[in-house]
Each structure stands twice: as structure tokens, then as C-alpha cells.
Amino acid sequence: MTVTELRDAPGVGTRIDAFDAVDRAAPYGVQLRQIPAAAAAFRADFLTTGKPAEVVTKDLVTLPYPTRFGLWRAALTPSPYLSITNRMLVIRWPGNVLVFEPSDHERGEYTPYFARLNAQTPGFVQDRIVTRHGTVLENLAALGIAPEEVTYLAFDHLHTQDVRRWIGTSTEPGAFPNAKLVVQRDELDAIADLHPLQLPWYQPETYADLRLEAVAAIDGDVLLGPGVALLATPGHTFGNQSLVLSTNDGVWAVSENVIAVEAMVPEHSKIPGVAKSARTWGREFILNTNTPEGLADQYNSLLKEKSIVDQSQRNADFPQFLPSSELTPSPYFPGTKPTFVSGSITHRSV
After folding, report:
1. Bridge partners of residue 89, in order along the sequence
2. Is residue 350 over pLDDT 80?
3. Is residue 88 part of a domain?
4. pLDDT digits over 91-126, tens only?
């Protein structure tokens, strides 16, 4: 099985057409103006689909990440790194369990960028700046969920991801025998023929022998279940997608288009330099830019996310957005303390 063949795997879910009103062939500025109306149409329909039974967030690992990538050269800090926490979400609705962002961090360390960083960082330093909170399987066990119950796996994008342990190959059984990996077809196309700008962040060889029947390739926006959608948000990668959830607190979005919720409202950021940079350049967002595949697309995708979510129940200055890798306070990286942390999404239908 090749990566190119994976792109032909049948999809899942119900296609959402609200954002068809955005003309992807038009100039980026035109698209930007079209997004709010399309987002309002999406919200109106999405809220009628119901809510999932449960949403739980679990931490996986806290690790360093270059400041110039995570805060798009906006932060005024002497620290070349900041700290981010990778999280997984578990969403349940009748007959289904979706695990979003089930990163296999043991194998993720073989990604060229992180392999090089680890080789340059002494072990005693890594022990201080990297915290492993729990593996995917440990977190599911703590929730009382057997691997056989998981029906869907999805990531916002496939940077660093090696999914062989989860869905299996011709020689390696997968931990989730009944799960389908839901991925944008554009992401699979990119992995099949990577550009030099993309190479440090992917492990393309790990996709060469995946079980075809365990992959669901989708195009664009899809409703998976009541109040559970995956929306195409290209830019950070060509096949980037965002998880959107309808909860008791309102609508949430989850992705890695930004690493801090304040990067969606930089005027409220207290990180030195961020608010000033946004004002100086006339930008509404501070992007997460380790791979500059499509910055204008990514900017517009952030407006798509921001236009559909509600405001935080804890602080109305911030939208209900959970970065799948979220900026985390660290004494080792001065000047990068987040102003506001979303932390988790917790929901249970009553």
C-alpha cells in the first residue's frame, strides 16, 4: 500500500456545504470578506444537529517549541523556545468514540526536526523541560474506554505523526482494530510528495504500508455526529482540519493554527511584543508557522474558526478555542507566559 493509494479510501460522515459560498478561486481578501456570512450559515445548521454525549480532554506531553514559529516572530523575549502542551480529546456519542489528536509521542520523536533537537539537547536538560503526562492508551484506560470501542481517530494535521501503532500495517496489528483514521485527502496528497519546507516535520515513510480499510479520506467539511464536525482549515498544512464541537458551553474549535488562544485576539495579549506586532502589521491573528505552506490560507482559516465559536465562559475577551498544542507557562522560557489558557473542553449531555 502506498500513500497515493490511501487517498482513494472512502470517506465518512455527512458533507457540510455552508462554506461552499466562499470562492476558493477568488483573491484572499475576497475570501476573507465572504467567510463570516458562511460561518453564520454553518452555525445555524450545526446547532440543530445536537450535542455529543461527552467530551473529555487529556494531557499527553509538554515540550519545547521554537518561539519564532509559535508566535510568528511577534514576541519580544530572549528565549528561543517556549513550552507547549499536546492534548488529546475523547468525544462520545451513541455507538461512537472519536479520539482527536492521539499523538504517539514515542514514535513522534523520530520526526526529523525533533530528532535533531533531541540529539542537540543533553538528557538532563530534556528531563527538566519535557513532561510526559500520559500515553493515549493510558488516558483511555483511565476513562474506562477499551481500544475496541474507538471508531474514529483524527488529527488536525499529520506533522510528527506515526499512526502505525494505532491503525496497523500488513505486519503490525493496530491498537484500535475498529477505528478509521479520518484525514483530509489534501494531507495525504502532500505526504506523497513533500516539499523541502515540509520535510523536517513529517514521517512519510511510516504511511507506506498502512491498512487501507482503516483510513477514511475526506474532502472539506464533514459532520461526524451530533455536534461533532471536522472542518477543512488549510494553511498550517495543505490538509489541515479543525475539530468543532457543540457543548453545554456553546461552540468550540480545536486545531494548531495558533498555539495560544490570545493569538486569535492579540489585542488582549500581555506577552511582550504580541499586541504591538499585531497593531503594527494590521493583523488580526498571530499564526503558528513552523511550515509556511500557505500563510494567507491559514489566516483565513483562523477567521473561519473564530467566526463559528462562542466566547469563553471564563473570560469573554477570548474565544472558545483550544489549541491542540497550547502555550504553557514555564520557568525555563521567560517572556512567554500565556495571558489566558483554555486548558480543556469538558462536556456531558444532561
Report:
1. 57, 100
2. no
3. yes
4. 999 999 999 999 999 999 999 998 998 888 888 878
Type of residue at 46: F
**217 lies in a domain?**
yes
**Would you say residue 349 lies in a domain?**
no
Q: What is the CATH number of the domain that holds 75?
A: 3.60.15.10
- Contact assessment for residue 321 and residue 253, using Cβ atoms and an 8 Å cutoff: yes
Could you tell me the pTM of the whole model? 0.96
| Nearest residue to 305 (alpha-carbon basis) of 248, 215, 236 | 236
pLDDT value at 1 more than 60: no
Strand partners, 230: 222, 243
Residue 276 has pLDDT above 90, yes or no: yes
Counting the structural domains of the chain, the total is: 1
Structure confidence at residue 127 (pLDDT): 84
